[in-house]
């Protein structure tokens, strides 16, 4: 393979550590490395040493993985724990450029067991990323497809040593097909996901807004917001080793799209609306809400009646408590009030029966069910709890626009609001009238909390009545 070493000259005299790890699963915290191979290559492209370790993982390997790797459990029994070999592994890497296929996945596991990882900080060259630059039509088809394309023979698959040999052979083929400038970008962009184009990574701005992670075919993976888009997006790529979902998501990112805003409020409102509209795969919070429920209270203390209603069905002026996403959450809140304030579950309509309730016998009810206390006293304690959960009244007589300005970038936005509803955001105030005429969208709990929190933090925010 001496004739093929010429591409190694592009590495500017770098010594390499070609690495392959085998893990018990895809979760960097719960799973572990059970096999590791490192091929040390000198600055001239000559193989210096082939290093190999087997480790006894904390948990047994799944049967399908044992079958795939042609491994018997006894082969790992009695092998050292990977932590005991951390110094030897670090020595094998130190001063070398790491080479691997889908290197982010391997490093998500490896840097958890190397205590001096931050001191090592090796340069990295990922053959998956190289393949995206050299053979974009094949890069997404996987390691096996690339090896087949180049005719790379593998005497055994799914084991660290033969796969490391295949990675090194693949690297040599790919290095023949990339420009020196491309390679320089590959070596510098250690945090970039393997399938994300370098030009997208380089154009991330340091300003407020919303970012969209897209996968194959434009699939919506994740929507997020930040006051500094560049810093926040990069943090995803630098910390993807912390949990399986983050690592899995980053592996799928093919594009990043951005929507800049004039400030934090605009980013919060847009993120909330976009998550509900797009339903991205990896967003857990701020999903599209069901119909909100609230406890409606009719009458006065002594004859107070409480009923769970849809928020939209409330009559104007009717006293109510809370906004809940489900009947379960609403019931749990009322049960907590009963425990804290010694309220009667029968009076509240949460329990059936006559006479003294079971909670009264246990001293948890003050006795409104059996005449030990008056209904007036019982209902006043209930109302005291309700007051803490009242929805704050809309503080203006009609719709308003909250003004947000980004003086540095010359962007001003008007957030058009009415009764805690976000009707839309415009870049010119005269564009607010169509939003007022359409009045699309009902009350949204996430929007309510976003607006209330922002107004509390910024009481002097510029407001324009509409």
TrEMBL record:
Keywords: DNA damage, DNA excision, DNA repair, Excision nuclease, Exonuclease, Hydrolase, Nuclease, SOS response
UniProt xrefs under InterPro entries: GIY-YIG_endonuc (IPR000305), GIY-YIG_endonuc_sf (IPR035901), GIY-YIG_UvrC_Cho (IPR047296), Ribonucl_H (IPR013520), RNaseH-like_sf (IPR012337), RNaseH_sf (IPR036397), UvrABC_protein_C (IPR050066)
Xref: CDD domains: DEDDh, GIY-YIG_UvrC_Cho
Domain GIY-YIG, residue spans: 206-284
UniProt organism field: Ectopseudomonas composti
Keyword Hydrolase: yes
Signal sequence annotation: none
Protein name listed in UniProt: Excinuclease cho
């Amino acid at each position: 393979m001496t004739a093929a070493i010429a591409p190694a000259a592009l590495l500017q005299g770098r010594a390499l550590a070609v690495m392959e790890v085998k893990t018990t699963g895809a979760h960097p915290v719960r799973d572990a490395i059970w096999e590791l191979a490192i091929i040390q290559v000198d600055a001239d492209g000559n193989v210096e040493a082939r290093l190999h370790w087997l480790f006894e993982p904390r948990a047994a390997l799944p049967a399908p993985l044992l079958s795939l790797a042609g491994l018997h459990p006894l082969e790992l029994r009695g092998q050292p724990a990977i932590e005991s070999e951390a110094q030897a592994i670090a020595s094998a890497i130190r001063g070398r450029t790491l080479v691997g296929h889908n290197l982010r996945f391997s490093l998500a596991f490896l840097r958890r067991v190397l205590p001096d990882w931050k001191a090592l900080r090796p340069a990295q060259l990922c053959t998956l990323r190289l393949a995206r630059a050299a053979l974009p039509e094949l890069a997404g088809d996987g390691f096996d497809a690339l090896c087949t394309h180049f005719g790379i023979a593998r005497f055994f698959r799914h084991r660290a040593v033969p796969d490391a040999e295949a990675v090194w052979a693949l690297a040599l083929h790919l290095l023949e097909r990339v420009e020196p400038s491309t390679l320089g970008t590959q070596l510098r962009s250690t945090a970039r996901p393997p399938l994300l184009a370098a030009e997208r990574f380089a154009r991330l701005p340091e300003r407020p807004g919303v970012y969209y992670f897209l996968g194959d075919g434009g699939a919506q993976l994740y929507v997020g917001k930040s006051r500094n888009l560049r810093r926040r997006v990069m943090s995803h790529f630098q910390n993807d080793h912390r949990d399986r979902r983050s690592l899995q998501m980053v592996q799928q990112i093919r594009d990043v799209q951005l929507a800049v805003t004039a400030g934090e409020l605009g980013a919060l409102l847009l993120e909330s609306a976009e998550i509900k509209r797009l339903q991205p795969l990896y967003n857990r919070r701020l999903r599209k809400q069901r119909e909100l429920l609230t406890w409606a209270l009719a009458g006065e203390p002594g004859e107070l009646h409480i009923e769970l209603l849809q928020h939209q069905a409330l009559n104007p002026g009717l006293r109510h408590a809370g906004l809940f996403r489900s009947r379960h959450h609403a019931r749990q809140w009322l049960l907590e009030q009963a425990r804290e304030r010694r309220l009667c579950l029968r009076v509240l309509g949460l329990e059936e029966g006559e006479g003294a309730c079971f909670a009264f016998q246990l001293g948890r009810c003050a006795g409104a069910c059996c005449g030990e206390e008056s209904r007036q006293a019982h209902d006043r304690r209930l109302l005291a709890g309700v007051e803490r959960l009242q929805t704050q009244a809309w503080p203006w007589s009609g719709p308003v626009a909250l003004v947000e300005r980004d003086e540095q970038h010359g962007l001003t936005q008007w957030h058009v609001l009415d009764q805690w509803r976000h009707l839309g955001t415009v870049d010119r105030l005269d564009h607010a009238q169509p939003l007022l005429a359409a009045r699309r969208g009902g009350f949204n709990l996430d929007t309510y909390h976003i607006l209330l929190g922002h107004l509390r933090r910024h009481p002097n925010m510029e407001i324009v009545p509409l």
